[in-house]
Here is the input.
Amino acid sequence: MPTDIKSLTREELEAQFVTWEQPIYRVKQLMDWLYVHRVTNWDAMTNLPKGLREKLRHDFSLGTLEMFRKQGSRDATQKFLWRLEDHSLVESVLIPANPSLYGEASDRHTLCVSTQVGCAYGCKFCASGLDGWKRNLLPHEIVEQVMGVERWSLEQSRVQSPESRVVEGGQSPIVSGAMDAGHAPRTTHHVPRNPGHAFPSERLVDNLVIMGMGEPLANYDNLLKALRLLNSPWGGRIGARKITVSTSGLAPQIRKLADEPEQFSLAISLHGATDAVREKIMPVNRKYPLKELTAALDYYQSKRARMITCEYILIAGVNDSLEQVRPLAGLAHRLNAKVNLIPYNKVEDLPWARPTEEVCESFLAALKSQKVVATLRREKGHDIDAACGQLRLKTEKQLAASAAGVRSEP
Ligand code: SAH
Ligand code: SF4
Here is the structure.
């Protein structure tokens, strides 16, 4: 399999163009086609000489992700389930600006992307790790989640009546939307494989959170390559500070990230303010207990002098007691961190539950009374907002069930 062109950094492209005796400004032209115009075929790159296009076509692939399923209505949170070349499924979630979640209000769009197929870290509450880890995503598979969503969005804005554009023929029964009951309006849209050259260059996604399926810091090199491409002024042009990497707490990689020149933002999935609580739900805590994690975060802070974010899912009866507030406040102050409280999203087959609204509100109030900068995610009833991994899990189950159904037929 040839390498995908979107897995090459600018420096790698430049080295390639030098061997081909091509002028370097051609790299800029190529990157414009890939990351600004988001074209999906070589022939659309009209200002590149034909000979160069042929070399590129010969040596590299130019892949897109297949949109296998989509949930959500226009102008609200949208979940995308992508099918990769090897038929693995991964998710991205597009979230319109939400001041209580990721900062100041604006017309921003945040995209949550996946970095692995499955996850090896097995947090007890999470759907992503339920089937274990399958593989790391390649850089272009991370980058293409952004490009694919933006192509979809542009296609939507061109179509007057999205409801009239249901489903391309010949796809899986799941794509036909039959299993999407309960979420309205629910249509599955076909993004043209070859949208060509007429794309406007504005970025829809100006805020990126690496909080989808997988542990990003366990796929460090591919992640960094993808983030550099998305951040580069010749590539995606998304500001480094607008890119937040979320980790369950891989201490050595946090230190490594601190040493990188880019100012990527960092979020820690804390979910427990003591080892006793954290260990119950996050096996990674045994490898990197809080002492080690906080030392790595101190190092990160010493290199960055910026606030980090601690994500804290509130799970009924596990970490929502007011006893957790004092140690959590202590950690937040020590780490110069703000705390995002997130009521747990129920995962089918798992025993955990979301606390009542009153419990969540009093946890928030108690944190604030300790002078912690804290927010509580308040949207309700949107199972679509659930963390990544659930749509994939549901779809895998449905596919397995329908395959079993097919086999059992005479
Ligand atoms: N592996 C990384 C990034 C992906 S998980 C990490 O753990 O940080 C992204 C976030 O979703 C994490 O904070 C994770 O704890 C949270 N999450 C997982 N399952 C959830 C659920 N059912 N409800 C709410 N948040 C969940
Ligand atoms: Fe993996 Fe993050 Fe889910 Fe834990 S919370 S299983 S690290 S994706």
About this structure: Residues 127 and 390 are 5 Å apart (CA to CA).
